[in-house]
Amino acid sequence: MLVRLTSSTSGDMVMFAEHLRRLYEIIGKECTARGVFMHEQLPEAIARLKEAIAAEKEALHLAECRRREEGIDPDDELDEVGVKVEVPPVHLCQRATPLVHLMEWTFKEKGFILWEADRDF
After folding, report:
1. What is the SS3 assignment for 43?
2. Can you give the three-state secondary structure of 2-24, one letter per residue?
3. Helix (H, G, I), strand (E, B) or coil at 39
4. The organism sits in which domain of life (predicted)?
5. Is the N end or the C end of the chain the one with fewer CB atoms within 10 Å?
């Protein structure tokens, strides 16, 4: 299912509900079919997403350092049980950055963001 996010100042963005759900959990928003980020709510939402991105980057860096220490090629992505992954995963940073940018632009222009989906997600 798709969710359309509409900024009052910066245009629209569409995301898959399953990916947006994780971002909303970080922010503390309910995954309802319709909702709004008011101008006053945007700074905290941006800060929470940026904190989560930084934490994930740190964890990925530490994991890479551990793999290098163990002699594993850093270009080899491994899953939870150590099996090489053919397609590298999409990280939180890649999913969250477009939303962070939309929020920052909207906040700068003193706007708000509405979202709409077919149903709660």
Report:
1. helix
2. EEEEEECCCEEEEEEHHHHHHHH
3. helix
4. Bacteria
5. N
22-69 per-position pLDDT tens digit: 999 999 999 999 999 999 999 999 999 999 999 999 998 998 888 888
For residue 119, give the DSSP letter. S
Domain spans of the chain?
Answer: 2-53+85-117
pTM of the model: 0.83
In the 3-class helix/strand/coil scheme, how is 45-106 assigned residue by residue? HHHHHHHHHHHHHHHHHHHHHHHHHCCCCCCCCECCCCCECCCCCCCHHHHHHHHHHHHHHH
Q: Which has the minimum average pLDDT: 3-12, 77-86, 92-101?
A: 77-86
